[in-house]
Write a structure and sequence with these properties.
about 160 residues, mainly beta, OB fold (Dihydrolipoamide Acetyltransferase, E2P)
Length: about 160
């Protein structure tokens, strides 16, 4: 097997105090931040929806999903648009607020090691934290995040 087959192109998505690491294939695009239309009564992590390519794209704060405050919006703020792979969201996509452009990285079993499976609230959409050279990004549970969004849209 070739070395390329053992590597996965991934994105390090910058949050306020953390980073997420996700496979590149999960991300549709990164767009400039625009203020979401917020639904009254929504969870604090649900920022609202923005118009994206003629669709109402739900946008979340991952920090909010970890029980922290949603970050202040700066000039670096972007929305990372993900594919909704479980089919629970009618729009087929969702967005995560990020604090800058994601960084493309290639990962393999030699540079990516499990660090911990604890350190975030129960119910948060996190699989684990990994050690990648000198970074400690979180691996999000995108299926769980999508299910949380689907429940939020039913309640709204």
């Amino acid at each position: 097997m070739s070395a390329e087959a053992d590597e996965l192109y991934s994105l390090l998505v910058p949050l306020t105090e953390d980073r997420l690491i996700v496979p590149r294939a999960c991300v549709v695009e990164v767009v400039r931040f625009s203020k979401p239309d917020h639904e009254a009564g929504a969870h604090k992590w649900m920022l609202g929806t923005v118009n994206w390519n003629g669709r109402e794209l739900p946008v979340v704060s991952f920090e909010g999903m970890l029980g922290k405050e949603a970050p202040a919006i700066t000039g670096r703020a972007r929305i990372v648009v993900f594919y909704a792979s479980t089919g629970q969201l009618k729009v087929g996509y969702f967005g995560v607020l990020t604090q800058g452009f994601p960084q493309l990285v290639r990962v393999n079993k030699d540079v990516l090691k499990l660090h911990t499976t604890e350190g975030w609230p129960d119910g948060a959409p996190v699989i684990c934290r990994v050690k990648m050279i000198n970074e400690f990004p979180l691996i999000p549970d995108l299926d769980k995040l999508e299910a949380m969004l689907a429940r939020e849209s039913i309640q709204a």
